[in-house]
UniProtKB/TrEMBL annotation:
<feature type="binding site">
    <location>
        <position position="106"/>
    </location>
    <ligand>
        <name>phosphoenolpyruvate</name>
    </ligand>
</feature>
<keyword id="KW-0808">Transferase</keyword>
<keyword id="KW-0028">Amino-acid biosynthesis</keyword>
<dbReference type="InterPro" id="IPR023193">
    <property type="entry name" value="EPSP_synthase_CS"/>
</dbReference>
<dbReference type="InterPro" id="IPR013792">
    <property type="entry name" value="RNA3'P_cycl/enolpyr_Trfase_a/b"/>
</dbReference>
<keyword id="KW-0963">Cytoplasm</keyword>
<keyword id="KW-0057">Aromatic amino acid biosynthesis</keyword>
<dbReference type="Pfam" id="PF00275">
    <property type="entry name" value="EPSP_synthase"/>
</dbReference>
<feature type="binding site">
    <location>
        <position position="33"/>
    </location>
    <ligand>
        <name>3-phosphoshikimate</name>
    </ligand>
</feature>
<feature type="binding site">
    <location>
        <position position="364"/>
    </location>
    <ligand>
        <name>phosphoenolpyruvate</name>
    </ligand>
</feature>
<comment type="similarity">
    <text>Belongs to the EPSP synthase family.</text>
</comment>
<dbReference type="GO" id="GO:0003866">
    <property type="term" value="F:3-phosphoshikimate 1-carboxyvinyltransferase activity"/>
</dbReference>
<dbReference type="InterPro" id="IPR036968">
    <property type="entry name" value="Enolpyruvate_Tfrase_sf"/>
</dbReference>
<feature type="binding site">
    <location>
        <position position="360"/>
    </location>
    <ligand>
        <name>3-phosphoshikimate</name>
    </ligand>
</feature>
<feature type="binding site">
    <location>
        <position position="182"/>
    </location>
    <ligand>
        <name>phosphoenolpyruvate</name>
    </ligand>
</feature>
<feature type="binding site">
    <location>
        <position position="34"/>
    </location>
    <ligand>
        <name>3-phosphoshikimate</name>
    </ligand>
</feature>
<feature type="binding site">
    <location>
        <position position="406"/>
    </location>
    <ligand>
        <name>phosphoenolpyruvate</name>
    </ligand>
</feature>
Length: 449
């Protein structure tokens, strides 16, 4: 049985969160998941030793590490968070003998499709039950324009699928249909091995970790504004990628859970260390501050080409706000925990334009609304908008996570501030992004059983 299948059949482990006293202390969340995936992938494509410090050792990232090994890299773990990758080099990847099994890793699988598409190899991609439901066509369509071919696929362009890459990927100019760092990154990673210039145009700018890491490893890449909110990214093909050290900053998506917990649990005062503050990832921070959150950014600095800071968060009386649709790309993973903050805010919070949440690990929009309702929160979905009326979170609910780690952590946070305990049906998948979640939260004073 594959590891993905084993995970899919693992017994569920329910977890309860109970009303807690003030959360206090300091913590550093795990390394950023997006940067961790990319550090490994660029290590694979570069020549020499790429040293990575602070790598997230969640299940998703470990799947990407294994895929890099299967494609010809030597990948070694020295100690917690400290890894080395000796790359095969751009254009020199090995054909994998076994299936590239990505478990639950949507980012890892989609980025690696871009890598494979730009090389004359054939690879079979698969994942767990959740990943098999997620659409891949939006990635495969532009890769086909670049010369890759899908030899086999499940219905609707889903996993498992077999992808044949191109020995001479075509330079393309591609306009992404939605704001998606995964689509953009796959096109750029394929374009790396193209003999010309690859251009990606986004009407709404998505997170830019791939562009930053391309530059960090020596590629010639230019990014300029496009329209009101977009970017135009141009990459010169076939650079000599040189191995570089990468220090992975703390993941803002993981930091979001203790951050919101401190805001809603009375008397709390915590510091979250070394969190990435990339403007294209800070939509949640902006929104919480608009709601009246007491959050201070201290000790601002740069790590691994990314802006970071320590975040001090204190209990706050929040108020509902209207969150514009154009903010969605900068906080797409944070809507579940924002909905929890909104449940404790005074008045109504409307989150607009959340269609992208329907194609995450679960139909995340429906999962959020269902979890809120069973815990006594008044909410509704109108079109692609989620409306939460705050001040009504009583807890007492049993939440179906649908194998979604962010749903699980969000509703555990809700339980820390509710009168009645909140139970999530399974905590095992939290390990995909935040293996130390329970231990770090308990150290701050959170109560779980």
């Amino acid at each position: 049985m594959s590891p993905a299948a084993a995970h899919a059949h693992a017994p569920a482990a329910p977890l309860s969160a109970h009303k807690s006293g003030p959360l206090t202390g300091r913590l550093r969340p795990p390394g950023d998941k997006s940067v961790s995936h990319r550090a490994l992938i660029f290590g694979l494509l570069a020549v020499g030793e790429t040293k990575i410090e602070g790598l997230l050792e969640g299940e998703d990232v470990l799947r990407t590490a294994q895929a890099c090994r299967q494609l010809g890299a030597r990948v070694v773990r020295h100690s917690p968070g400290n890894w080395s990758v000796w790359g095969a080099g751009l254009g020199s990847l090995l054909q994998p003998v076994e299936t590239l099994d990505f478990g639950n890793a949507g980012t890892g699988s989609r980025l690696m499709m871009g890598v494979v598409a730009g090389h004359p190899i054939v690879a079979r991609f698969d994942g767990d039950a959740s990943l098999r439901k997620r659409p891949m066509k939006r990635i495969l369509d532009p890769l086909a324009l670049q010369g890759a071919q899908v030899l086999e696929e499940a219905e609707g362009g889903r996993l498992p699928l077999v992808l044949q890459g191109s020995s001479e990927p075509l330079p393309v100019e591609y306009k992404t249909p939605v704001a998606s760092a995964q689509i953009k990154s796959a096109v750029l990673l394929c374009g790396l091995n193209s003999p010309g210039r690859t251009i990606v145009i986004e009407a709404e700018a998505s997170r830019d970790h791939t562009e930053k890491m391309l530059a960090h490893f020596g590629a010639t890449v230019a990014s300029e504004p496009y329209g009101a909110h977009g970017r135009k990214i141009a990459l010169e093909g076939r650079p000599e990628l040189i191995a570089r050290a990468v220090r992975v900053p703390a993941d803002p998506s993981s930091a979001a859970f203790p951050l919101v917990a401190a805001l809603i649990v009375e008397g709390s005062d915590i510091v979250i260390e070394g969190v990435m503050t990339n403007p294209l990832r800070s939509g949640l921070l902006t929104t919480l501050q608009e709601m009246g959150a007491d959050i201070a950014l201290e000790n601002r600095r740069e790590e691994g080409g990314e802006e970071v800071a320590d975040m001090r968060a204190r209990f706050s009386r929040l108020s509902g706000v209207d969150v514009p649709a154009e903010r969605a790309p900068s906080m797409i993973d944070e809507y579940p925990i924002l909905a929890v903050a909104a449940a404790f805010a005074k008045g109504e919070t409307r989150m607009r334009g959340l269609s992208e949440l329907r194609v995450k690990e679960s139909d995340r929009l429906e999962a959020i609304a269902a979890g809120l309702r069973v815990n006594g929160v008044d909410c509704e979905i109108i079109g692609d908008d989620l409306i939460v009326r705050g001040g009504s979170a009583k807890g007492g609910g049993f939440v179906e996570t649908h194998l979604d780690h962010r749903i699980a952590m969000s509703f555990l946070v809700l339980g820390l501030a509710s009168e009645n305990k909140v139970v999530v049906d399974d905590e095992t998948m939290i390990a995909t992004s935040f293996p130390s979640f329970r231990a770090l939260m308990e150290r701050l004073g959170a109560r779980f059983s």
